[in-house]
Write a structure and sequence with these properties.
about 130 residues; about 45% strand; single chain; globular; 7-stranded mixed beta sheet
Amino acid sequence: QVQLVESGGGLVQAGGSLRLSCAASGRTFSQYVMGWFRQAPGKEREFVAAISRAGRRENYADSVKGRFTVSRDNAKSTVYLQIDSLKPEDTAVYYCAADQRALYSPNYYSTANKYAYWGQGTQVTVSS
């Protein structure tokens, strides 16, 4: 089992940047595929990005490609989401998620119900 704690959210102006972090408990972080999702008010949770266990493969939602970068540091049991060129429509609660049950596949791990563990979320608000 793994526990996830996100941080780094906040209020930022459009065009700005943030780096979200997700710290995981336990000593087996490198066994987990990690994902980022977001949920805006009144909307369903949507996929943002995912990264394979060793960090060699990444996958992004079309809406964030070129602006968001996912990375991980297995030695620190932490996954990051660098968000650049923020837009008001990026306003949402951002969640990290973890799963270890399947081989990494971009299509498979772009779906929320494929992840077993979730953090509590961190709020990102972008003002125009």
